[in-house]
Amino acid sequence: MEINAVDTLQIFTNPDDLTISIQQYSRSGKFYVCICRGPREGFKPIVTSEPFADDTAVAIQKAGEILEMVRSNGIDHLKRSPEAAPKCFKPGGQDIDESKVLNTNLIKEIIKRLQQCQRAYTHQFRWPLV
Hints:
Elements: H1 5-12, E1 18-24, E2 31-37, E3 45-48, H2 56-80, H3 104-117, E4 119-121
Antiparallel strand pairs: 1-2, 1-4, 2-3
Helix pairs in contact: 1-2, 2-3
């Protein structure tokens, strides 16, 4: 699954305003991943996979892979173009502030919530998750 740079940065730089869910397509019974913004942006869809998984565990694993790809690509993009999201850097502008971006601990918490109830609302998490 490819995610364009704009959507990658939208997910990566708004870690406290995301909704990630595993949903089941009624026609095929297959599960898919949906990543949306949270309440600040009206739960606007950003990424929706095709229905592909026979069970939620496979879809949750894919959600983790997508989020890790976003994290990795987001870091690369900000290192090349720090002006794209200056709020994501520590004072001095050299290092990315992990508390302001999608980070590994947040991804772990999202996966945990998906395993519990197939939905994760990051605006409800305790912050910062670093």
